[in-house]
Design goal:
Elements: E1 2-8, H1 10-13, H2 25-28, E2 45-49, E3 54-60, H3 68-76, E4 88-94, E5 97-102, E6 109-114, E7 117-126, E8 140-143, E9 149-154, E10 162-167, E11 174-175, E12 188-195, E13 198-206, E14 216-224, E15 242-246, E16 249-250, E17 256-257, E18 260-267, E19 272-278, E20 286-293, H4 294-302, E21 305-307, E22 316-318, E23 330-331, E24 334-335, H5 340-348, E25 365-368, E26 372-381, E27 386-394, E28 398-403, E29 406-412
Length: 418
């Protein structure tokens, strides 16, 4: 069962604007507004409504509940009582509406609600391909200004069919190729952004191009927003999907890699992507923050592809047939410059050879024996320069704060897991 809570966020999230950097936790108590919900177990989705100066939190509690028949069907498929609830996994503000999706006991469902009155539901649609079935599956989604929904999630009950999928709006639905591990290989989706002509997705996945055992790489991927799919070849499938590896590592004779992307934050005014990367959960815990320029990501997408002719062949660079790639133009519902050869190339060339390198060769911030989970960045004008203030969540109870690479604060919030 779910309740969508509203409360003021200005002083809660912007307290650094009003008080000194040297405060202790007790000093900020007057500026904090705390909310609680009895027996709440999931606060994973948050979104902002700047117009009302409110933060909307999706939590398991009261009003949006599964019906008993749906729960029973979930139980009959071997799922537990905890799993067979309605976990909110999509919360998106579009105009004066809130688009939200929940797992609904492994029968995902989405609603459009009035932002100023969340009990007012305008329409209800299937959440399949828009929201994961399982609360354990990572996903990300965004709404464009023209009304298209882009979602990266598992498309099926067992979670074996991950996809980047477009629906709603005026453009035709498209997805990544189905059951093709070279396109997506057991991905954990992290974030998505609407930038210019493209929609960008950030995730981690098992690396198909890695020949020496199983390992995870972090990726940046993109698709053209005006992609309408192929004809016969790649029908109902992206023709502009590309992905590239993100490198976050501690340099040296043998570099130490932080391979698993956990969270990102985009600064549009500076075209910078901040990312939290960690080591594998089975290895020694370590975390790092790496910063990527959007131009470096674009450069990787303009470079050669990495291609494997067959399962016994090595992965080799292959020249990009269109290194100055831009989104195509549509003419009477078809790409004017999309030939059959283009479609065949798009079907096999999507993994980029070049690795996206961070702004600096050394990570912006590193800490051993820690696993960071979320990052938020604020830009503050100093006397002579801009300062990037980075907030890092570590587990359930600590927020770390750095400014221009200098340590300032470790703040214990005392959050307890219910």
């Amino acid at each position: 069962m779910f309740h969508i809570w509203l409360f003021s966020y200005i002083l809660l999230f912007r307290y650094n604007k009003y008080i000194s950097f040297s405060f202790f936790f007790l000093e900020i108590v007057p500026w904090l507004r705390v909310f609680r919900a009895e027996n709440a177990v999931d606060f994973s989705q948050l979104t902002f409504d700047p117009g009302q100066k409110e933060l909307i939190a999706g939590i398991e509690f009261l009003e949006w509940q599964c019906d008993e028949a749906t729960k029973r069907a979930c139980y009959s498929k071997g799922k537990s009582k905890e799993e067979c609830q309605n976990y909110i996994r999509v919360l998106l503000v579009g105009g004066n509406h809130l688009f939200t999706c929940g797992t609904n006991a492994f029968t995902p469902i989405c609603t459009n609600r009035t932002l100023s009155n969340l009990t007012e539901i305008h329409d209800q649609i299937s959440g399949m391909a828009r929201c994961p079935y399982s609360p354990q599956h990572n996903s990300t989604a965004l709404l464009t200004s023209s009304g298209e929904l882009y979602a990266a999630t598992a498309m099926d009950f067992p979670g074996r069919d991950p996809a980047i999928y477009r629906s709603l709006g005026a453009l035709p639905p498209l997805r990544t190729a189905q059951y093709n591990s070279k396109w997506l290989n057991e991905p954990n989706f992290v974030s998505s952004y609407d930038i210019g002509n493209f929609t960008y997705f950030f995730f981690r996945e098992n690396a198909v191009e890695h020949d020496c055992g199983k390992t995870v790489f972090s990726r940046a991927a993109r698709v053209c927003k005006n992609d309408i799919g192929g004809k016969f070849v790649l029908e109902d499938t992206w023709t502009t999907f590309m992905k590239a590896r993100l490198n976050c590592s501690r340099p040296g004779e043998i570099p130490f890699y932080y391979n698993e992307l956990q969270s990102t934050f985009f600064l549009p005014e500076l075209d910078l992507i901040y990312g939290i990367f960690t080591t594998n959960v089975n290895s020694i815990a370590a975390s790092a923050v790496c910063v990527f320029n959007l131009s470096a990501i674009t450069q990787a997408f303009n470079g050669p592809f990495k291609y494997q002719e067959n399962s016994r062949s090595a992965w080799l660079p292959y020249p990009n047939p269109n290194p100055n790639f831009q989104c195509g133009t549509m003419d009477q519902g078809l790409y004017a410059n999309l030939t059959e050869r283009n479609l065949q190339d798009a079907q096999k060339f999507f993994l980029m050879h070049e690795v996206v390198q961070p702004v600096t060769p050394i990570p912006y911030f590193m800490e051993d024996n820690s696993r960071f989970s979320h990052v938020v960045v604020d830009v503050v004008q100093g006397k002579d320069m801009l300062f990037h203030i980075i907030y890092l969540a570590t587990g359930m109870s600590n927020i770390l704060k750095t400014v221009s690479g200098c340590w300032f604060l470790k703040l214990s919030l005392g959050v307890q897991k219910r």
